[in-house]
Amino acid sequence: MGKDKRRLKISLKPAPEIIETFIMVLGVIMVWRGIWHLLDTYLFPENELISSLICILVGLLLIYLPDKNLKQLM
Fold it and tell me: Are 50 and 44 in contact (CB under 8 A)?
């Protein structure tokens, strides 16, 4: 058997794609948190049930509108 000359390259330096993905995920989480806070403050703050139901309905509508299909939820 011959020796395999290939070596596994391990780097402790993160790839640029990983850093970009992390930054995008962080941005999405921050936007989500901000929207969540605004909805808690201004969308029926005295009635949590109605606020939650409206958010669910609007969210489903936003998911449905682009392709008129909710298959991705199943």
Answer: yes
pLDDT digits (tens, 9 = 90+) for 14-45: 788 888 999 999 999 999 999 999 999 999 99
Return d(Cα 43, Cα 11) in angstroms, integer.
48
Q: Is residue 72 within 8 Å of 60, Cβ to Cβ? A: no
pTM score, whole prediction = 0.63
One-letter amino acid for residue 36 of the chain? W
Contact yes or no for 55/43 (Cβ under 8 A): yes
What's the pLDDT band for 1 if we cut at 50, 70, 90? low
Q: b or e along 35-46 (b: 16 or more beta carbons within 10 Å of the residue's beta carbon)? A: eeeebeeeeeee
